[in-house]
Amino acid sequence: MANEVLSQNEIDALLSALSSGEMDANQLKQEEQDKKVRVYDFKRALRFSKDQIRSISRIHENFARLLTTHFSAQLRTYVHISVASVDQIPYEEFIRSIPTMTILNIYSMSPLDGRIIFEFNPNIAYAMLDRMLGGKGNSVNKIDSLTEIESTLMSQLFEKALDNLQEAWSSVIDIDPNLEEFEVNPQFLQLVSPNETVVVVSLNTTIGESSGMINICIPHVVLEPIIPKLSVHYWMQTEKPKNRKPEEYETLTQNLETAELDMKVMLGETSITVDDLLHLQKDDVLHLNQAIEDSLVMQVDQEPLYYVQAGKKKNKLAVQIIDEIKREGYN
């Protein structure tokens, strides 16, 4: 340990405190001899750094936004989902923290090993089911008496949300999540050992007038292969743009030049009644809203691009381009 050099003023202040009794020399000596120890609970082993926890939180903040949009469209009601907390705790503590009867979905995360748990609070689960069946989104807690139809509908609803989970994790790894089990009693679940560290992501969820929590339990064994990718250094890395080879540019140019486009010129439009349409006969004349001296519009794949005038070339109908149509956002 390096010796610390005190100034004369600090020495005088220290001697003054010792002489006045404000400081006890024996107490200072005893404190120096006492060992500094830090309590560590091996049952709550922290296997993820704060940096990695923040990365997991960012992933699920994106997942919460995607899930909000998805359920809003599926249920056609107000939905709001946000990340409440991200913690690492023993698996046993997670099981004790959720209700004895709840909605549990177990997903595989191929190519990652292990499985994860989505726990939907009964208030949320039944509000979703009520909306699916045409109700107002009321919640009725009767988890212990789920019918087969209700279980199937819930499973299908949660399974459709897997694309959002896949998209949220795509920035770290390409996963193929799959719903493997649907359970209501957490005591029947033993994914990992009781002391295994798991990351629990809690989502505040509001469906119409009902609110509750969605808890996502991710065991350490699932995240272990990608832990290095959860660091700030990985997130800050940016891939350098790849320079295309000249032959690639030539191929792209040739493909664009040979692409076919649908071009048409609208001679004019008019409106008639259904009765007039039914009584149209040969030699009848329809008055168009296009004046003969006005330019026509040429459309390319439904987009108006040029002003043209009609004519003939070699006894064939033709148009001549007069000017380009200026569009906002295009030079």
UniProtKB/TrEMBL annotation:
InterPro entries referenced in this protein's UniProt entry, alphabetically: CheC-like_sf, Flag_FliM, FliN-like_C, SpoA-like_sf
Flagellar motor switch protein FliN-like C-terminal domain segment(s): 255-325
Sorted UniProt keywords: Bacterial flagellum, Cell membrane, Cell projection, Chemotaxis, Cilium, Flagellar rotation, Flagellum, Membrane
Residue ranges of the TM segments: none
GO terms, biological process: bacterial-type flagellum-dependent swarming motility; positive chemotaxis
Subcellular location: Bacterial flagellum basal body; Cell membrane
Gene Ontology terms: cellular component: bacterial-type flagellum basal body; plasma membrane
Membrane topology: Peripheral membrane protein
This protein's record includes keyword Nucleotide-binding: no
CDD domains with a match to the protein in the record: FliM
Molecular function as annotated in GO: cytoskeletal motor activity
Family: Belongs to the FliM family.
Record's protein name: Flagellar motor switch protein FliM
Source organism (scientific name): Paraliobacillus quinghaiensis
Lineage of the species this protein comes from: Bacteria, Bacillati, Bacillota, Bacilli, Bacillales
Gene that specifies this protein: fliM
